[in-house]
């Protein structure tokens, strides 16, 4: 099988994409760190907050976030130690557990949400035109489709 190397235009586009992802993630991570949360913390808190009773199975939560179960389990342990969530036995699966957002976790999310939104605006939204945002959506849909 021969390798189809990237053309100069393709190489520039790929590298530009990587730089954008790193720049936006670095900026939002730094802004969340200023309130003692990591991006993964915020993602766990925000996605759990969207669930009925702020509760999800570990497996369903991992799938929703695009994480492995082991990654989420390790991260949930750290968040549990900080009082942001708790684990409960899953009545539907004796081997599984439920992740439940605590009152402290909800409070941390409520405090973090304005910081996060301001950060996303500063590092991403406000730097793009409405047409740019539509193009990003279109590209994301295309890249999210199975090959």
From TrEMBL:
Ranges where the HTH marR-type domain occurs: 10-145
PROSITE patterns the record matches: HTH_MARR_2
A biological process from GO: response to stress
Record field: compositional bias (Basic and acidic residues): 77-88
Annotated InterPro entries: HTH_MarR-typ, MarR/SlyA-like, WH-like_DNA-bd_sf, WH_DNA-bd_sf
SUPFAM superfamilies linked to this entry: Winged helix' DNA-binding domain
Keywords: DNA-binding
GO molecular function, one term: DNA-binding transcription factor activity
Official protein name in the record: DNA-binding MarR family transcriptional regulator
Source species: Actinoplanes campanulatus
């Amino acid at each position: 099988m021969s390798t189809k190397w990237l053309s100069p235009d393709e190489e520039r586009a790929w590298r530009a994409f990587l730089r954008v992802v790193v720049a936006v993630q670095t900026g939002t991570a730094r802004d969340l760190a200023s309130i003692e949360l990591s991006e993964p913390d915020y993602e766990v808190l925000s996605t759990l907050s969207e669930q009925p009773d702020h509760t999800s199975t570990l497996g369903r939560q991992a799938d929703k976030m695009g994480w492995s179960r082991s990654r989420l389990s390790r991260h949930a342990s750290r968040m549990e130690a900080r009082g942001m969530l708790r684990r409960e036995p899953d009545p539907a699966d004796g081997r599984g557990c439920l992740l439940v957002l605590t009152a402290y976790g909800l409070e941390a999310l409520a405090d973090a949400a304005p910081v996060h939104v301001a950060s996303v605006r500063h590092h991403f939204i406000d730097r793009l035109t409405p047409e740019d945002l539509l193009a990003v959506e279109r590209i994301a849909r295309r890249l999210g489709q199975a090959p």
